[in-house]
Amino acid sequence: MTTTVTLTGTGVPFPSADRAGPGVLVSHEDVHLQIDAGRSTLMRLAQTGINPHQLSALLLTHLHSDHVSDVADLAHTRWVQDHLHGTGPLPVVAADGHAPAFVQRVLAANAYDVEVRMRHVQDGPPQVTGHWFQLPDVPAEVWRSPCGRVAVEAVRVRHEPVEQAVGYRITTPDGVIVVSGDTRVCDEIAALSAGADIVVHEACRSTALAEFARNTPFETIFSYHADTVALGEMAKHVGVPHLVLTHLIPEPTTPDQVAAYEADVRRGGFAGRISVGHDLMTLTLPPETIPGDQQ
């Protein structure tokens, strides 16, 4: 048995030719969990060999547009393919509040297309199965696979002023993976990360952006994203063995810029393994089987 962690997108709201919108795919045998669905998630999943009908659940960390812009494509394409696979509604896991209404609006956006397809192929309209949970202040289980082998915990993270933002902890028979979503470094994500094998965490190089952002509205982003030095301090304190950086602000486009991310984290005191994420980077658990970061 193995568990794979694939970065389906490592980008930010600004478009990039090389980085899709934020997303992580965690797979254990036939259980496939997609965490967030930023732009081009569907295409990245196709590159991994996973189709929407194979998803066991879609987990949303929060409703910033760059994390959810491909929810419509995932849900609608799964519905279009349903007459071939019979997999039924897409399970969506998210904090209760804004998410249920958002998902329903997503489904309603293609009303005309739905009407036309139902005349010829589809038996009913697209649907999701909502697994809505109350925002937990300490890690709490919010979903478990029907087979019982894969469990998901969530905790509130600090991405204010965004409401109802969470990070997820996925436990499989092979190990534990944490996906931070968007958050500043905080006690909640530290608690979620304790004992994890891989922590996939957003990263913002505040030092690289400080002069550019000074006295502009962009300066406020430092208050709700994870500074790379502070992230290194947290990872050291918690004892994270493997830290994977994603949602990279700013986008590194040269080897020196990639190295600068690692250097920042090292400045925080972290001595464990660091992977500066790129799209389709794939990691494998259990740790002893990891041959290295794979394309």
UniProtKB/TrEMBL annotation:
Keyword Transcription regulation attributed: no
Alphabetical list of InterPro entries matching this protein: AtsA-like_MBL-fold, Metallo-B-lactamas, RibonucZ/Hydroxyglut_hydro
Record Pfam families: Lactamase_B_2
Keywords, alphabetical: Endonuclease, Hydrolase, Nuclease
Residue ranges constituting the Metallo-beta-lactamase domain according to the UniProt record: 36-247
Molecular function GO labels: 3'-tRNA processing endoribonuclease activity
Classification via PANTHER family: ZINC PHOSPHODIESTERASE ELAC PROTEIN 1 (PTHR46018:SF2)
Name of the protein this chain belongs to: Ribonuclease Z
Organism: Nonomuraea solani
